[in-house]
Amino acid sequence: MTLRVEQGKGRKDCYAMLSPVLLERLRARWRQAHAQGKMLAGGWLFPGLNPAKPLTARQLNRAIHIAAENRELFRNF
């Protein structure tokens, strides 16, 4: 499957390949979020703080930094 990335690096649109394994994982996440009521009908796969809007680049960046910090904290366990 091919994904269309709008306004990626350099604010240019591009296409990226999506592996079958990742596609199935994203589909499973979609189904689970809908079943739990965490996603609006026709909503975003990765909603932001406001479920009607997508996750922003800043929110994603913060989540990645927090995950990296937690990894360092728990590395010795």
Anisotropy-based shape = globular
Unreliable sequence segments: none
Write the element-wise H/E pattern from the N-terminal end onward.
EEHH
> Counting H and I runs of at least 4 residues, what is the number of helices?
2
Strand order of the largest sheet: 1-2
How much beta, percentage-wise?
5-15%
Compute the gyration radius: what is it? Answer: 15 Å
Q: Could you tell me how far the N terminus lies from the C terminus, measured between alpha carbons in angstroms?
A: 39 Å
Report the strand count. Answer: 2
Percent of residues in helices: 40-55%
**What is the mean predicted local confidence, pLDDT?**
86
Structural class: mainly alpha
Number of domains: 2
Instruction: Tell me about the largest β-sheet.
Output: 2 strands, antiparallel
Describe the 3D structure.
The chain has helices at 20-35, 57-73; strands at 2-5, 14-17. With 77 residues, the chain is mostly helical. The chain has 2 domains: 1-38; 42-77, no CATH class. A two-stranded antiparallel sheet has the order 1-2. The longest helix has 17 residues, at 57-73. The mean pLDDT is 86.
